[in-house]
Amino acid sequence: MLLRQLKSDHESWVAHTLAGQMRPVRITPEGLFPLSHLRTGDDVWNVIDGAWRFYLDDLEESTASDEDLDASAMFLQIAQDWGEISDSVHDDGMSAIRHAKRSLSACLAGLRERGLVVLGGRRQAVLTGGQGEDLRIVDALLMVLPATDPRVGTLMWPTHRDEPPATSP
Asked: What is the top-level taxon of the source organism (predicted)?
């Protein structure tokens, strides 16, 4: 009987203490992804560094070879892995960052040899809810496409806002 009373008292205390403090957790993106043609490991690093969420768009299986699909999947996984540990990479210093960029550059070179390109971009989002303050986060998008894909020419946006949109390769 004592145990039931203690449990009931605790449940009442929790309900009273947390009443009105918990908000539903939501993530609200701020706009669209501005996309750029990512040509170097530095370009990819600038997209993935510090990202909280990753949107990865692979090749279409129905139109790509197994080798192209493997190369694309490997690049996307390596890029996401580097992005997820980017805080630790920063802690290890500039040589660690350079190592990450070299790794990403090597993957990009392999994709280029296969006639593939990478588009990518970042956008801000706001994480709201729970008990704490709202939190600004970064989303990263990486897309692997054949260089001949018509979407490449329409989706490429400049890295710097004062440059005109890039043309297809």
From this structure: Bacteria
